[in-house]
Amino acid sequence: MQPKLGAVTPLLSLLAASSALAAGLDKTHGVHPNLLSQYVPLKTSSSPQTWKCLDGSKEILWSSVNDDYCDCPDGSDEPGTGACPNSTFYCRNEGHLGSIIPASRVNDGLCEAECCDGSDELPGVCPNICKEVGEAYRKAQEEVRKVRKKGSKIRSSYIAFAQKEKKRLEGLIESTTEEIAQRQKEVERLRDIVERSESLSAAALEHKKASPLYETLIEHANALKSLQREHKKHLERKKALGQILDALRTGYNPNYQDMAVLEAVRGWESLAGLPHINDVRKEEEGSDEGAVVKTESDDEEELDEGMWTAEDLEKDLDNLLKTDYVSLLLEHEKHVNSPMTDSILFDLAAYLPDALVPQYETFRETVISWLRTLGIVHRGVDDSGENTKLRQSLTEAEQALRRAENDKKKAEDDLSDLFDPEGYGAQGEWKKLEGTCLEKDVGDYTYEVCLFDEARQKPNKGGQTFSLGKFHSWNPDAQPGNPEYYTKQLYRGGTKCWNGPNRSVMLILSCGTENAIHTVAEPEKCEYHLTGTTPALCLPFDSSSEEKRDEL
Amino acid sequence: MVRAVTLSGALLLLLYVPSTFAVKTQDFKTCAQAGFCRRGRALASRAQETASWKSPYSVDSSSLAVASDQASFTAGVKSSLYPDIKFSLDVRIHDDGVVRVRMDEVDGLRKRYDEAASWALIAEPKLSRDISWTVGKKDVRALYGAKKESEVVVNFEPLRVALLRNGKEQVVLNGRGLLHMEHFRTKESSRPEGTPEEGLDEEAQAVMKVRPMAWFEGETEDGYWEESFGGNTDSKPKGPESLSIDIEFPNHGHVYGIPQHATRLDLPTTTGENPTYSDPYRLWNSDVFEYMASSTMSLYGSIPVMHAHAADSTVAIFNAVASETWIDVDHPTPKSTNTHWISESGILDVFIMPGPTPDDIFGQYARLTGTPALPAQWSLGYHQCRWNYISSDDVRSVQKRFDEHDMPVDVFWLDIEYAEEHKYFIWDKKNFPDPVDMMHDVEALGRKMVVIIDPHLKRTSNYPVYQEASELGVLVKGKSGDSEYEGWCWSGSSSWIDFFNPNSWEWWKRLFKTTSQGNKWSWTESTDNTYIWNDMNEPSVFNGPEISMPRDNIHYGGWEHRDVHNINGMLLPNITSQALIARSDPPKRPFVLTRSFYAGSQRFGAMWTGDNLGTWDHMAAGIYMVLANGIAGMTFAGSDVGGFFGNPEPEMLVRWYQVGAFNPFFRAHAHLDTKRREPYLIDEPYRGMLRDILRLRYTMLPVWYTAFHEASVTGIPVLRPHYVVFPRDEAGFTLDDQYFIGGSGLLVKPVVHKDVTEIEVYLPEDQVYYNYFSHHAYRGSAKGKQVIVPAAIHEIPLLIRGGSIIPTRERPRRSSPLMKRDPFTLRVALDKTGYARGELYLDDGETFSHLEGNIVWREFVAEKTAKKSKTIKISSSDLVSKNPDAAVDGVSLTKYDPLNAFAKSVEGVRVEKIVLLGLTSKPVGVKVEGGDDLVSEFVSGVAAEGKKEGEASVLIIKDPGVFVTKDWTIVIQL
């Protein structure tokens, strides 16, 4: 390391006569190599020699260049003294890389790390340590290079994975396309049958449906459904409210000195059967058992005979509401009327080859209408049972078709995402990491980011896990495809903070041989900054970067 | 019963007061909710309604004893209400003419608190040995002053104290007969109203009911014994002991001071006809969440000092009381002022400062309570704070970004989250694993860190600071007086250090040692560049009455908290600053920022205006609050830039940095819930504006430091309101939105409104003023005049008063210590006669070696060699040898060596440039006397003489080759 502050005070006396020394300063001191050619006196002038400010605004004496007094409005006459605000100083740093520092750091008594040659201060103040710095830099660069090399190998395996994935998806698309064609045919066939069969029985069914029992049943069912919907809404709201109040209880800032908040907390604690948070905090101090002890002791409610418990409601109500009321209606008919055996006639279709079914249907309709006319078969007794079954087959076939279509759509989407610069990168190098969950334990919490999915904050000592947001986008400040673009991932819309925003995460990534989160910080309330590494960012060396390295 | 009705009426009214801000007004008492204030105001209204009102207090002339060798006397005082109760009066005249009036109850049931002044005063004041009292039949008098212009008259019956100048009454005590010192009594002797006493017949009952003192004290014993407010009960074991005193200024139409309140500098009225406020000004140090921008509510600190001002006279009083105090202000005529001070406990101890000018008042007050400490120079730079920089890496990264954007900053701050479980001193190692390394990284660039230490200690066995305090027995006790008081604050269940206990002092100092102290705890994880922020020292107690400590808590010496509350906050920064001095050898100047303060706090550090809001109102209030603090001694003050609460829009943030850059204390701070707003985060063009403002502040550090130097010697505040600089200019008496910086001649009017492009600035004299940036010359008038100054968002209305020389350093650096070797620029702003003068004070900026004469104090003068001469000389000369007594505070530098060690260390520092404004014509020659011709550049323009406005002529002298520590003369031949 270079000497820093410690050097300031003793240096002061040494540097006292700064202007005297500055007078003897080389006119090109601090000049960037690209501008060297401009730091020569004007040829036109005879004696005394003059010089023109780089912006052309003023002609000054050549002796005024680097004389520790700012003459030029653009500051160009003092490249080496720091006399002009907003100008810059160039350190050659021979043996290392040249660098530019602001004028504010020239002759301030500190040896700048960026100027290992010590040229930012007057001679004799800062040693030239470019040899050591250069060596250390090259060594560090070599380390970085090694990591990048190793990482880039892993990265290429990710790319290979993406290629394989591509093939798999393409295969999938092909196979689903075939399947869809088949299933479409099947659906069309069944739909044809059902339509014809249903048009026949629709009228009879309508008649049955007119029964007061059925109508009341449907009304009950609707009422129940509505009730269930409202009930679920209330449950959701209650849950959300509970979360808000929990967050308030654990997170409220006593400095708000707000008795209303305190009352709200106490009210919630008594409602939810929680101990007072202050006592909990005290207990935590007193013992190592930090966990919040729930003292909830819900009094068991006495239920009337046949009444459902809350658990039953949760589990069984859905099933009950899924009841096919039409089938039920028909069963009911069956039950009320005297039992009778099903004629094979009505099930015959099941035994016929598919190809013959349409003909059979026509035939059956004819036969049945005869029988009806003859009073042998009661009108509309059981034909709808048949229809139900047919309809079920159709539904199943349709569902299968939709599944196949979805599979295909998803495969197609995945395929297009795979090499989308805004998705998994132009080479699909991120695909491999989809859903990979990285964790970082920081003591009280473990932070987890499941890449391209969701980030979470999980308390280590029990308590609620908060969502920190779902994957939202890559670095919005960079262009897709640019390496910079993939160095940041944003997760947004996490659980809302009390008195704050929805939680969000910025995951800042760099090249490393492992997928890992290294640091977690919350620079602003509920806005988390995580840093981490991933091989997906280790770009391979191309020929141009190799050249650069050789220059060093 | 009439009273009860009006009372409930008042309560009803209160309920209808709309709450405009988020402040919980109901958390804090109004006068009507404090028994003694209610009694005091009722007393005043009875007096108002009674034509024959006469104070019951009189001096027992037979007991009068005049000291033989000094200007003091004592006498007994009697109250016609309670003939058996004895009081004593003690009147003294100090050698500078200040009059001190003390009154106490003698041989009472208990002792009144009488130590308030001892905490505020720097030393027992010297009494005059020349002034003598003349005892007459009706009064006792003393005539004094150079021309015997001053006179103190103490009338015997009723007791009345008046200070006169040239026969005109300046200050009167008890002129309206509102003096009342409630004597100690037992609850039994003071029977609750309406409870019939057994064994008395009806007639006797009736007689008993009519209290003979009712005409004065009221019918009922209102709030004598126990009071409840907001669910807290004050047991009041001592019963009533309040003190009421009226103080009149019969010839002064303006009063200023009694900080801290968010009100205009020229204190608006609270009583009389159409008062601006309905409640009296309250002094009861309070942590007020989201306080209002205009209110008489008490805030974090209290300085019971009031200036009364008129064109021909300024006087002031310092009422040394530490208990809760309410002050009513009224102007019975535009040229006079009545005030009424109602305190809950304590003796009467009033200092009357005779003036007659504001500067005299500052000197008189400084001799009582001390001058503001000369701060470390770096502390005048920019401070970057936030609740919270969350880790040592966060601090490093903030520093890095300041440097990347080439924005200067001197100090990074850490709020409470650095401390594990808010156990102050104890680093949260999860986020600050390497605190000393972090500090070294900051120090490497000449910067410092300020870390918060609050007075509440977490009650836990693994916290050595609490453990040691508990073992030492230096924690505040509960009302029983024997067990530690426990309250709730940041650290949860907490106790408070009782700094009234002398045993706490050495212990507290030891904690700040950076080296190991044997088996005792000390802060080894800090450095000599770690400075301290004391917050929450009102004290703030989250579950206490009015967010503070119960009044019946017991402090050292058995005093109740009510007796000492307003002083309590001052002691923490007091002892902490001593601890920082004691920390290193040789000692370095401390820096301690405090939120709570009292008279005398100026000796220990800086204050800020607490938790303000990010609103334009609060930005404006910040300015007049800082002005009010300054005239009450606490001149090292500022308001949080950006507002503590809220997310200011870019325009507001820029304006707020402009306000901050012209505050003595310049710190940006933000609440935990706000977005980050460090100046580099804002977008262009605003970022560039903020950089320019920061750099302007650094450019002007020599001006600020020189102003602080003057304040540290004279007590004259760094920010000077108009009435201070132009005490005879009536039009300036209400001005509090523009002010002068020290004696520099810089006049600034920060913009505190939205969408402003130009602004009116008031010029109080027939003089030329130059725009600091454009050099535009404006003309004032003897009658006062408003001029229009450009004030677009990037512009600051900043004028140089003609006749001033402003020393600046124009090279931007990352921090102020890195400017030590930089050359100076002098802006010479000629006045109408072609004259200008300025000062520059320099020292090492951080040690106490200035007290040994290691300073450079220069005077720059520009003047014509003769009245009609065409030659102007600008010269630099030593001021120390001219004013050895005014060079540093408290030491006479008669043996000053201009080649002292500090001067030598900066002997190579040049004046690189002189900018001369207002020359009449282009010079024919410019040279150093006895030297070569100098290079200069002249741009013609308006001359200082004459009446023209417009851009002034500018002569720029390039690198004159003169040094700042040396005498030199530059000759300009016109």
Explain what you see:
- Chain A has 552 residues and is of the alpha+beta class.
- Chain A contains 12 helices and 12 strands.
- Chain A has helices at residues 8-14, 18-23, 130-209, 212-251, 259-272, 277-286, 310-321, 325-336, 344-351, 357-373, 383-418, 543-551; strands at 50-52, 59-61, 88-91, 99-102, 437-441, 445-450, 454-459, 466-474, 488-493, 504-511, 516-524, 527-534.
- In chain A, the strands form 3 sheets. In chain A, strands 5-6-7-8-9-10-12-11 form an 8-stranded mixed sheet. A two-stranded antiparallel ribbon of chain A has the order 1-2. A two-stranded antiparallel sheet of chain A has the order 3-4.
- In chain A, helix 3 packs antiparallel against helix 11 and helix 4 (212-251) packs across helix 5 (259-272).
- Chain A is elongated and about 130 Å long.
- The two termini of chain A are 21 Å apart.
- The longest helix of chain B is centred in the middle third of the chain and has 23 residues, at 561-583.
- Chain B starts with a helix and ends with a strand.
- In chain B, strands 5, 6, 7, 8, 9, 10, 13, 15, 18 and 19 form a 10-stranded antiparallel sheet that branches. In chain B, strands 1-2-3-4-20-17-16-14 form an 8-stranded antiparallel sheet. Chain B has an 8-stranded parallel sheet with strand order 30-29-28-27-23-22-21-31.
- The model of chain B is unreliable at 1-21 and 192-197 (pLDDT under 50).
- Classes of the chains: A alpha+beta (552), B alpha+beta (974).
- Chains A and B meet through helix 1, helix 2, helix 6 and strand 11 of A and strand 45 and strand 49 of B.
What's the gist of this structure?
Chain A: Residues 435-540 form the MRH domain. The complex is a heterodimer of chains A (552) and B (974). Chain A is of the alpha+beta class and 552 residues long.
